[in-house]
Design a protein that fits this description.
This protein has 261 residues and is an alpha/beta fold. Helix content is 38%, strand content 16%. The two termini are 21 Å apart. The relative contact order is 0.15.
Length: 261
């Protein structure tokens, strides 16, 4: 509350964010991602017009914290469900919210083909390099040498293969219009992530096709480190393998003028 003429309001809870205490682990950046999505939807004036599709994993709790309509998809099938929702309700703003185990493993076929078809949906991809909800097992995004509960000696790329760079993979699909990677490990990169999310939703609002924002995120509990160390781990370990950037931006998207703060 502003009490004097010199007070300045710098933050308030977005209308699109519910008044519910978080259930995420301390230091998890899912909460930051939720806040950014809520702020963007509010700024676009789309809260009553938005439908989210929750995946399986820690991301499934999104519908508890985001104050607009949600549907629940089977594991990995969020892009397929979002496709159906968008085709039936083309005037709605439809997005999926998925983790790396959901999107890049069991859901790889769905995300590739949704992009190939150029479905006019927005995908928010949370990459924390492990299966967060089910015990911290190795995911398609787990880094070389990274220890998980199913790779206790570290990911051996000769036996287990290389991690998948999903943004780069989808950027080669002709149907994709906007594919970028951002990070949530510090204030500067959080601001950049918000602008990317705004652009991804604007791509859909203007009917320009498939968009995906990959967000590098923390998982202190399964990584076995304090939150402050987890933020540093993103910077020191994840960024070299998963460089930030715009991997696919169609000319029509480049011409868009997007507002955001």
């Amino acid at each position: 509350m502003i009490t004097t003429e010199t007070d300045q309001l710098v933050y308030q809870r977005p209308e699109s964010l519910t008044e519910v205490s978080t259930s995420y682990c301390p230091g998890c950046t899912h909460g930051i991602a939720h806040r950014l999505v809520a702020e963007v939807i509010d700024e676009m004036g789309q809260r009553e017009n938005t439908i989210g599709v929750a995946s399986v994993g820690c991301s499934v709790f999104a519908y508890l914290f985001l104050n607009f309509d949600f549907v629940q998809a089977p594991h990995g099938r969020a892009p397929a469900m979002a496709t159906g929702v968008k085709r039936v309700l083309p005037d709605k703003l439809v997005f999926t919210y998925q983790g790396d185990g959901d999107l890049a493993s069991i859901g790889m076929a769905e995300i590739i083909h949704a992009a190939a078809r150029g479905e006019n949906i927005t995908v928010i991809f949370i990459n924390n390099t492990n299966y967060g909800m089910t015990g911290g097992q190795m995911a398609p995004t787990t880094l070389p040498g990274q220890i998980t509960t199913s790779s206790p000696n570290g990911r051996d790329v000769e036996r287990m293969g290389m991690p998948i760079r999903t943004a780069e993979l989808l950027s080669a699909v002709d149907g994709a219009s906007y594919v970028v990677r951002r990070s949530l490990h510090d204030a500067k990169h959080i601001r950049q992530a918000k602008l990317a999310l705004r652009k991804a939703f604007e791509v859909q609002a203007q009917g320009l096709g498939f968009s995906m924002v990959e967000l590098l995120s923390t998982c202190p509990t399964n990584w076995g480190v304090p939150p402050s160390v987890a933020m540093k781990w993103v910077e020191e370990k994840m960024l070299p393998y998963y460089p930030l950037g715009d991997f696919k931006v169609n000319p029509a998207v480049e011409m868009m003028k997007v507002q955001g703060r």
